[in-house]
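Try it yourself: sequence plus adenosine-5'-triphosphate, in.
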Amino acid sequence: QDLEADLPAGKSTHSYQSDVARLRGIVINRFLSARLDVFLRELISNANDALEKLRLTALTDKGLWDGTGELNITIKAVPGEDGERGRIIIADNGIGMTKEELTANLGTLAKSGTTEFLQRAEGSDDATGTGNLIGAFGVGFYSSFLVADKVYVASVPARSSYDSDATQYVFSSTAEDNEFDVYPDPRGRTLERGTEITLVLKPDAEEYLDTIAIAKLVHKHSVFSTQFPIYMHEMKDKEVPDEDAEAEAEAERSEKDETDTLLDEDEAIIEDIEEEGEKPEPKTKTIKVEDWVMLNAQPPLWTQDPKNISSFEYELFYQATFKDFAAKPLAWHHFSGDLGSGISFRTLLYLPGKLPEVYWQNPLQTVARDIRLMVKRVFITDDMGEDYLPKWASWLKAIVDGKNFALAPDDLPLNVSRETLQNTSFLRQIRSALLKRILQTFTKIAEEDTEKFEKVHAVYGNVFKLGAVEDTKNKEKLASLARFATNIRNFTSFDQYLEEKKENQKQIFYVADAGKTANQLMKSVFVEKLIARGYEVLLLVDPLDEVLVNNLKKWKGIPFQDAAKAGLKFGDEKLDSDEDKALRKEEQDRFEPLTKWLKKQVDEVVRDVIVSDRLVSSPCAIVADERGYTANIQRMMNAAKAKLGKDDPQALFHDYAKRQKVLEINPRSPLIQGLLKRVERLPEDEDERDAEAEDELREVAAILIDGALVRSGFEVTDSDEFMVRVDRVLRRSLGVDEHAPTDTAVKPAPPVDPELQDESFYEPEPEEDDGKAKVVVPDHLKDDVAFEMEEISDEEYEKLTAGSMRHEEL
Ligand SMILES: Nc1ncnc2c1ncn2[C@@H]1O[C@H](COP(=O)(O)OP(=O)(O)OP(=O)(O)O)[C@@H](O)[C@H]1O
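Structure, out:
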């Protein structure tokens, strides 16, 4: 029987309160279709409230509900037939409404702040933002009109559940009219208690009739939003005995039995056995039966006490909620907080076991997509805006469930734009709570479980480094989580490095070269002496490492020192004996002729040449100035410079920075000592100059410097020139005439061919027959044919050929 009022008797028509009319107008006209599906979560949320209200009031007023019978929510989709519209019916057996309550609750808005909300919503173009706030401001029920042309709300208050004569009333309203009707339900009393909402779907909302679509929606928005079971009506296939077919089969069987008795006895036995093997299957048929499937078997995990939740449950919840099946979460943190002004929240945050590839493809572009903001267990949004979290944390997956959230409109302004959503104090407070807890979670693992932290660091190491550069507020905390290899250990933090710092050491030493391994870096010329003397050196192999230390500049007040740069001090130089100091001074004076001479030779490559204090076995090294490029940075900058114009100031700076290096020579290297001697022997007098000897020496120096460049990680200035020099020096050492030219004569190419020949002309020429025995396989068979040959003796050959087998056949 239809819900439509058939008799005018008992029907009353009311106008919506003006605010309701405006609100309905916004809902109906200003929502994007993408937000249509909120209607279901809103109605489920209302049903949940009605059930909760019943449960609570029944605690003190047993007359409302005796505690027996399940409190639940049901959803039923009724496809349209015979030109009728499809319907969705959502019912609860909660507190219910009287005739007066139907009129008052659904016809007026009692929320404070609504008028302001309406003004802003009407003035805003951001329809999606409005969608986020539905629910938080009690526009919930009116979202029905997103999908329905007509809505019926049938209700019986709980108080009447024991009174079988009590009247069930219907509220009905169309989307167009600004009026609604209230009348006794023409179907009579169909509900024991509670509310049943029937949505007569608009033609373009018929997709919601699909039970799978409904189940998906419930899972997306509401599966964790109520503690009460949600059941969905389904027509299920069921096999039942088919009595008609069974009776027919029985008749057939008895006919057959009669024939069997006529057969020979032996045969009859065989027949019996066979019959036993194939007992007649009972005849069945498939019928459709009604079934109610529970959609939310799981209660909201984050509302439970962490003590009662197993790791397995946390992991399952993670997978189900965030659809991340790539790896188990590495860790989670489940906590509640209070923001004052009556707002509290519960949060469950997860550190994913793997960061998505897109994160590292462009970490600065990533946006947090998995922070699910809920209010009272009802999903509100997972779009917190582009910059809600710093980029380093954009991988975070979390549920944030605010309580009493809607009661504090100041904390969530009615303005609907995302930018303001981000800037509300509630969300800002949540953001800092989230960041604080992420860092706490990492720090706790780092302090308590090194093995686990190694795993965490393998995934998040670069996140810490990126974060320390990006997030000035959390710089220290993030940087202290980063770990590095050193020449002494594999996994050390800056703090641990300082614990092992030597006396008087005033710098944190590091050497960086992205792409090299820690072992390779340990062999770098720059750290020879540091390592030989037993100092600890951070071996920075990741591109972000160098960015991080350059950005930090100091750790606990102690500067970082790139071992490949000028300014390296062991710190104990002052403690050297006078003798040592004198020795160094003497060395410097002694090598001055060489440093001066070399400086003239290498003017283009380096700024200065000095006697080194950092080399042990290598003859020389190229060390960058404090403001110059190290090889590592130079490589990165070269790529960037390639894109700049020649006269671009940045390009000019690049050339300048490139030259800011020093050639350091090792006074103990025999090669350097030999070079010094040769330089000293060069006659100073202009007239006596030996051009040839000078050239030779220059060449040696040039190779030495190129070698130093390569050893120091730079590229040689001109690799062709380098090879020409090496060629000359090799000749000299082999006693080959240095100037003897290589015979470079070659046969010139034939004259230009003016014509295009026949195609076959360009095919490769067949090999000439050399007269030797061989098997020639045509090209197209080469892949398919294989040969095995066996050498046979003359005798065997004779034997074989003597018979019928001829040579060719063999
Ligand atoms: N299923 C229901 N059972 C009983 N009362 C209901 C039901 N649905 C709605 N109501 C009544 O109608 C009122 C208006 O509902 P509406 O969804 O517009 O706002 P709200 O539920 O009060 O706000 P919010 O959606 O933010 O919780 C509710 O406050 C409630 O009193």
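One thing you can check immediately is this: Residues 54 and 95 are 5 Å apart (CA to CA).
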